[in-house]
UniProtKB/TrEMBL annotation:
Annotated SMART domains: AAA (SM00382)
UniProt-listed InterPro entries: AAA+_ATPase (IPR003593), ABC_transporter-like_ATP-bd (IPR003439), ABC_transporter_ATP-binding (IPR050763), P-loop_NTPase (IPR027417)
Single Gene Ontology BP annotation: response to antibiotic
Record bears the keyword ATP-binding: yes
Annotated membrane topology: Peripheral membrane protein
GO molecular function: ATP binding; ATP hydrolysis activity
Main subcellular location of this protein, as a coarse class: membrane
Coiled-coil blocks: none
Stored Gene3D superfamilies: P-loop containing nucleotide triphosphate hydrolases (3.40.50.300)
Recorded GO CC terms: plasma membrane
Name of the protein this chain belongs to: ABC transporter ATP-binding protein
Family to which this protein belongs: Belongs to the ABC transporter superfamily.
Taxonomic source organism: Nonomuraea deserti
Keyword entries, A-Z: Antibiotic resistance, ATP-binding, Nucleotide-binding, Transport
């Protein structure tokens, strides 16, 4: 049994699928994962890496082939209802909402399912509709909603009963930038209040902005697990740091060829980007040699997107 009694814990979680020709495909392979109270963990991976299968097992929509998973100490198979009540989930798509009901009626219905009643339910539903910017559409049927609006209502439904655990499958899919930013603030605040949050995402900015830890899945298993900063700094040892130089007046790109540890140099509309082995040493050299020509200078490790592409061998 996984050792954690709070949050999410899995041990050797496995899911196989059998095709019509009786061949077996392993979608999730002996997954060990822990999300503690107050943590927000993002799962990244290419299509087919096992992300969605993992969250579907954790939310009771798929039975594991082997292994164990617990939500707040409740086994997701043997204590399915208790585990489900301890977990709010948003898996997106059209399932999980009633299109003929209004947004408010949907939340009222699910609130009753969670044991909520009366004015407390009304206040909570109104509060969440405001948080996801749907107050002005509260009395309209969900069938008239865009994909992004449904996605926001999914999030409100997941948060309705203030569950200790929140599981989100690509929560920002279909959202415009403003709505996505609001969603990130709401989810981050939920984790800051001490809840356990697990989300899958293809949005590297989202993962970097929100995550306590990032889990990179590949071929159904955990390939790497670390904080975003650790991932970026680790990648910098292999791929170097990026130094961006904006010139004052004439372009002096050619003068950078002697920069210590230079791996690559590119020029783009008056901005020079150097890839170097040691960011600090490169900055010191640039300021000493060309400082009078440089009004702006920045240094950064590889982005999380570069880390992801490198680790998944996508080019």
């Amino acid at each position: 049994m996984p050792t954690s009694v709070s949050g999410i814990a899995t041990r050797q979680l496995r899911r196989e699928f059998t095709s019509n020709d009786v061949s077996t495909r392993v979608a999730v392979d002996d997954l060990d994962l822990i999300v503690r109270p107050g943590e927000l963990v993002s799962i990244l991976g290419s299509n087919g890496a096992g992300k969605t299968t993992t969250v579907r097992m954790l939310t009771g929509l798929l039975l594991p082939t082997a292994g164990e998973a617990v939500i707040e100490g409740y086994d997701v198979v043997r204590e399915r209802r208790k585990a489900a009540l301890a977990c709010g989930s948003s898996l997106g798509g059209d399932s999980g909402l009633y299109p003929r009901l209004t947004a408010l009626q949907n939340l009222a219905f699910f609130g009753l399912m969670y044991g909520m009643r009366g004015q407390a339910l009304k206040r909570r539903a109104a509060e969440l509709l405001d948080h996801v910017n749907l107050t002005d559409r509260a009395d309209e049927p969900v069938s008239t909603f865009s994909r992004g609006m449904r996605q926001r209502l999914h999030l409100a439904r997941a948060l309705l009963h203030k569950p200790p655990v929140l599981i989100l499958d690509e929560p920002s899919a279909g959202l415009d930038p403003h709505s996505a930013a609001s969603m990130r603030r709401l989810v981050r605040s939920f984790a800051d209040e001490g809840h356990s949050v697990l989300l899958t995402t293809h949005d590297m900015r989202e993962a970097e902005e929100l995550s306590s830890r990032v889990v990179l899945m590949k071929d159904g298993s955990v390939h790497t697990e670390a904080t975003p900063a650790e991932l970026r700094l680790g990648a910098a040892r292999q791929h170097g740091f990026v130094v961006e130089v904006i010139w004052n007046g004439s372009d002096s790109t050619g003068n950078c060829s002697n920069c210590p540890g230079l791996m690559d140099i590119k020029q783009d509309r008056g901005v020079t980007r150097l890839r170097v082995r040691d960011g600090g040493m490169a900055v010191q050299w640039l300021l000493a040699e060309l400082g009078a020509q440089i009004p702006s200078l920045s240094v950064s490790p590889p982005t999380l997107e570069e880390v992801f592409l490198s680790m998944t061998e996508v080019r």
